[in-house]
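Subject: complex prediction, re-run

Hi both,

The earlier run crashed halfway through, so I resubmitted it with identical inputs.
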Amino acid sequence: MAAPSRTSVATARVEPRLTQPAYAVILAGGSGTRFWPASRQKRPKQLLAIAPGRDETLIAGAVRRLAPLCPPERVLIATGQHLRAATAQALPTLPESAFLGEPMPKNTAPCIAWATLKIALKDPRAVVIVVSSDQHIEDEPALLDALRRAAAQAEQGHIVTLGIQPTRPETGYGYLKQGAETEPGVHVVERFVEKPDAETAKSYLSRGGYFWNAGIFVFRADVMLEAVARHMPDLAAHLEELRRTLETAPEREAQATEALFAAAPAISIDYAIMEREPDLRMIACDPGWSDLGSWQAVWELSPKDAQGNATPKDSVLIDASGNLVVDLSRGGEGKQPKVFALLGVKDLCVIHADDAVLVLPRSEAQAVRDIVEQLNKRGRKDLF
Amino acid sequence: MAAPSRTSVATARVEPRLTQPAYAVILAGGSGTRFWPASRQKRPKQLLAIAPGRDETLIAGAVRRLAPLCPPERVLIATGQHLRAATAQALPTLPESAFLGEPMPKNTAPCIAWATLKIALKDPRAVVIVVSSDQHIEDEPALLDALRRAAAQAEQGHIVTLGIQPTRPETGYGYLKQGAETEPGVHVVERFVEKPDAETAKSYLSRGGYFWNAGIFVFRADVMLEAVARHMPDLAAHLEELRRTLETAPEREAQATEALFAAAPAISIDYAIMEREPDLRMIACDPGWSDLGSWQAVWELSPKDAQGNATPKDSVLIDASGNLVVDLSRGGEGKQPKVFALLGVKDLCVIHADDAVLVLPRSEAQAVRDIVEQLNKRGRKDLF
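This time it finished cleanly. Structure:
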């Protein structure tokens, strides 16, 4: 059962052209512990430069990637208040106004609705592209191509999501079931599918027509606000109140925003809106997308030697295979990078930070959480 | 086949008393690569504080241990010229004159003969204790007791060696075959035995009467110089020349010493003299001796948790067993010690230095040499 090749997705189509640049809403609220000792509460995954071969933080990569569609003045970064400063520091080219600090975490629906309102106040018919800040894209032109086509659909009033061509029977992602084709390369989303078991994931891959849900959405601001009004009337009422506040007493914005979030349910945009939209559209693509979910994913994407080792250059590897070595303290304090010597070991992760060293089998990469939990129990808040 | 217990060595005897303090000749010429990344050419094993639970370098431990028998003014440290400064720095309580820099490495026989001559010039009948600088002794009173008895034998004109009670069928050491008992607790050495194979080592342990050769010798200076004259007449002639130089033109000492070493064969005291002495005496003892030959030996001697992990405190260990973690950069630069997190790994060595990190299975500890060889090939002399 070979995975479909990347080119199989391409279909004949007319090249779309946007009438104006789009807005980007980049979701950067995640904290995440799966990349300890790299990730910390105040330095979550999106602020790490862990994408193999890229010397930029994941969030900087997200902004850079979208730049051909969304110029800096049209980028909004939605993050937690406590991460706002660190996030702004990671994105020095963005204006201060680009950073939206959520008063409290309420999952993605309230946050996206809020950001969409802010955009709608400038231009109700603006096209908005929502992406995560902590994903990896191998084939950036393929992503941009799909987003351009999605934006063209959005301009016509559709809410569009990208469907990522699966390349393996992944059980860690949700899937989109592709429905009828509405025009070349554009399909209705028949339904959202929860993370499947291994058997089901295999059948999705062999049957075709199932795509990974990467949480990438494209819509016109006014269209989304109407959808919010349909599916989340309470939230819509609070949004309306915030709009009035901004028009009549803008100095009370923070207060009104806080009220909005306090009242909002903590719910994802998928559950609250997308799954309920009968005519959601999907553009299939294969941009080499990864959610970089663990050190295992970093190893998978990294360039490797013939023995499958992904290590800093100058490493000494003797009878070693399948290992991942990451040196987070590289280049610190003008010192020479550390040399890593691995002998007689297989499929290990060795992660070196200034204050911690992690060693575990790649197959246990998800268990990094347990370590952070241990540190928490010991009160070592300095370490996570 | 249980190993003989430590107490079985004790035999009835009269407590000896030395007529005067002994001299110590501490051999510190070794370079050794088996403790990389801790050991380096300019920081060999004896200059490392790797003895578990001891906060001193191995060589400082050797000097401290012998102090009840050999006061500082009677301690000679024989080391290479290139290590002389670093060695002196590690032993600040010793006078400058304690350090003998060998002009070139010629194994132990020339070096011991030379040091013995220096002592004989002060007191021909002085008792000399020769020990290595890089060994570990668990039961120091037991060692001192054996050395006192050996010194008493030496005063009577015997050359004496300590025989270490074997506690396992070790194939990495040479053995001494115990011969006839000359008086309680003192035996003739019947013969020296090369490193045995596993089968032979097992039979030594079960038959008894075989002891590890730890290279610890005790003799009177004049007696050793006579033995050198018997077995190494050429070296004896050069020693005689050096003696004359010291008496008539002491300013030419360096030159004469260099000539001595240049002419000397590179040969161990065991081969050159001890094995040829028909009446060599042996005192058996069980001082918890280890030559600390590798990281494996450090693990063996280290205090361990219930899962057999020997790690810095504050380590996070989840489903981890039998691991050794050593942080050589601990306490550096006033920083908090690094936290080591090991999850799902077994029987590994993780050694962290300022400029290198080593990961390998304990069972491969001897292969550290291969790593140093690799670094050598790459011209990374900064790292070994």
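Confidence is low (pLDDT under 50) at residues 1-13 of chain B.

- K.
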